[in-house]
């Protein structure tokens, strides 16, 4: 079942992130399905920590971007969403290639939303699992 309450596409997501941290980190939106968004971030000089692995904070930026977009495009018209909490378990530290994340809703409620984000390296191995909780704000 399609969950989006606003027009959504890769082009709209990409355009809305011009001149933002995700764009500067090289993040790309790849796919929008009926109930998910997929995007990726490169493992390169912009995103590695000093030891050569993907910086954990970059995984969190990918997770927060995907989960926040999911919440924003599935909330009721006129409402806004803001982040309340995010957690991330870093399972593997890739040193090259891309990390691809997919977000799906765990809960879409009237006042909160919870989104799961699973991230994988190019070999399909989990690198990070994250969950974000969003507050849904009513129009003022």
UniProtKB/TrEMBL annotation:
SUPFAM superfamilies: Thioesterase/thiol ester dehydrase-isomerase
Phosphoprotein found in the keyword field: no
Molecular-function GO terms, alphabetical: 1,4-dihydroxy-2-naphthoyl-CoA thioesterase activity
InterPro entries: HotDog_dom_sf, PAAI_dom, Thioestr_dom
Alphabetic keyword roster: Hydrolase
Residue ranges constituting the Thioesterase domain according to the UniProt record: 51-128
Transmembrane segments: none
Keyword Hydrolase attributed: yes
Matches recorded under CDD domains: PaaI_thioesterase (cd03443)
A GO term from the CC aspect: cytosol
UniProt xrefs under PANTHER family: 1,4-DIHYDROXY-2-NAPHTHOYL-COA THIOESTERASE 1 (PTHR43240)
Family note: Belongs to the thioesterase PaaI family.
Protein name: Hotdog fold thioesterase
Organism classification: Bacteria, Pseudomonadati, Pseudomonadota, Betaproteobacteria, Burkholderiales
């Amino acid at each position: 079942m399609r969950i989006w309450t606003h027009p959504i596409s890769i082009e709209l997501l990409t355009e809305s992130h011009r001149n933002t941290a995700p764009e500067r980190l090289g993040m790309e939106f790849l796919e929008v399905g009926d109930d998910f968004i997929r995007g990726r971030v490169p493992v390169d000089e912009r995103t590695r920590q000093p030891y050569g692995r993907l910086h954990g904070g970059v995984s969190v930026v990918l997770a927060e971007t995907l989960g926040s977009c999911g919440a924003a495009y599935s909330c009721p018209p006129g409402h806004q969403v803001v982040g309340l909490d995010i957690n991330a378990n870093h399972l593997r530290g890739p040193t090259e290639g891309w990390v691809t994340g997919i977000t799906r809703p765990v809960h879409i409620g009237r006042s909160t939303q919870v989104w799961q984000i699973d991230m994988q390296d190019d070999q399909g191995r989990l690198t990070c699992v994250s969950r974000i909780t969003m507050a849904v704000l009513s129009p003022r």
